[in-house]
Each structure stands twice: as structure tokens, then as C-alpha cells.
Amino acid sequence: MSASDLPDELWARILELGAASAALGFRDLCCLAIASRRLRRLSLHPSLWSDLLSRDFPSQSQPSSSSSQQQQQQQLDPKSLYKTKFERHKIRMAEARRRTVYEAEGRLLVCRKRLTDLEQSMSAEGDRMKAAAQELDNLERVRRASVALNVWQPQVVRGCQKQLVQQCTVPVDSRLSDLHMELKVCKQQVATYKNVYNKEKLKLDEYEEALRRAKYHPLQNHASSSVNEPQAKRKRLK
Fold first, then answer.
1. Highest taxon of the source (predicted)?
2. Per-residue pLDDT tens over the stretch 106-122
3. What is the pLDDT of residues 47-64, one digit of tens each?
4. Do 13 and 19 touch, CB atoms closer than 8 A?
5. DSSP letter at 217?
6. Where are the alpha helices (DSSP H) in 21-171?
7. Sign of CA dihedral 134, 135, 140, 145
8. Which residues lie closer than 8 Å to 132 by C-beta, 6 or more apart?
9. Closest of 39, 18, 38 to residue 30, by C-alpha
């Protein structure tokens, strides 16, 4: 016994049970409608689409408070009403998807701005550390020259060392202590910036992945890849 031998009453009962048990969805009914004229006639039964309406749009299946909207809904058959609600649902989903993309792009821009600020801060601390290291090196030379003045040495060398000491206008010992502390603080600050920078980089990767997921659309991506596919490859596939 083939499927075509089943009576309409049995087919109608099968479709009714499928719609009531969520085994059949609107896509399934649409596919059945193009299978044969008989299934098209059976799949258009109002009770099937009423079940789909109450199942897929439970919050919207209650009578509207507006009398005009209620009259309009009563004039539409369940399938037309389902189509109207489905189109509105698609619009709401598209708007929600756009909002998600905008939010992901906003987080990405903020994260990139933070990374730029951190790079600038690390560069400034690096320059400050280089300047402190250079000054520390000069003061070390002055301190060594000051100590060497107490030791016998040729007059020419002694004159150079004395000139170097006289050109220094800051107290060497206290300044050396300050510079050592400044270098230590700079290194700690750079390490802190690097730690925060690495964490922000991880966030940036997460935000970029979230943006790719938000922008991904299977149908649109497939269509764009088909358009960008080489002509020769498309010919071979044909």
C-alpha cells in the first residue's frame, strides 16, 4: 500500500498530529504543499496553521486590545496571519542582529582605543626610563671621576676628571638614589602596562570573534562566496 492510497482523512490526521506535537513546522508544511496537489490542499487546512500560530507565536496569539487590529486578524486566514507575524518576526530579528553587530563594533573600537592608549603610555615610560638610565650613566661617570681625584694619576687625566666633576650641578649621591628608584618605578609601570595590554589583546580577539559571529549569515555568506568564485571553477561545477 503506497502513500497515495491513504485516504484524505488519514493524511489530515497525520498532519494534525504532526503540527500539534511540533513534529511538523511551517517549513515542512510548505514543502508538502509543493509535493503534490493533494498535499497542498491538505496542508492549507486552517486548523494546522492555527496550531502553528499558537505554538510559534504564543505571546502574540491573544486577542488584540485594539478593535481594528482584531477585525483585521479575523479577516485573515491562519496561514496569512502566520505569514504576517513571521515577516514581522524576521524584521525584529534583523533589527536585533544589527544591534548586536553595532554593540560588538562599539566594544571593538573601545578596546582598540585602550590598546592605543596603553601603547602610548608604554612608549612614554620607555622614553622616561631611557632618559633616567642615560642620566644615571652620566652621574656614575661623575662619581667615579670624583673618587679618582683622590688617587695619583697623570695631570691630563686628572684635569679631565676635575672638569667633569665641576660641570655636575646636582648632588651626586642623592640624585643617584633618586634615579635608581625612578628606574625601578618605571620598570614596574612598564610591566603593569604590558600585563594590562596582554589582557586587552585577549579581549580584542574575543570581540573580533564575537563580531564575526554577529555578522555571519549562512545564506548571505554563501551567496557572496558564490559571486566571488572564479568563473572557471563555476563552469567546472556545472
1. Eukaryota
2. 999 999 999 999 999 99
3. 899 889 888 888 755 555
4. no
5. -
6. 26-33, 37-43, 46-56, 67-75, 78-148, 155-167
7. positive
8. 179, 182, 183, 186
9. 39
Question: How many angstroms separate the CA atoms of 204 and 108, rounded?
Answer: 6
pLDDT exceeds cutoff 60 at 224: no
For 23, the 3-state DSSP assignment is: coil
pLDDT, tens only, 178-212? 899 999 999 999 999 999 999 999 999 999 999 99
What are the residue ranges spanned by the domains of the chain?
Answer: 111-214
Burial, 1: exposed, middle or buried (Cβ in 10 Å; 0-12, 13-18, 19+)?
exposed
Q: Cα 213 vs. chain centroid, distance in angstroms?
A: 7
CA 153-158-160 angle, to 5 degrees, is 145
Q: What is the DSSP letter of 153?
A: -
45's grid cell: 487546512
Could you give the CA distance from residue 15 to residue 52 in angstroms, rounded to a whole number?
A: 12
With CA atoms as reference, report the closest residue to 203 among 88, 134, 104: 104
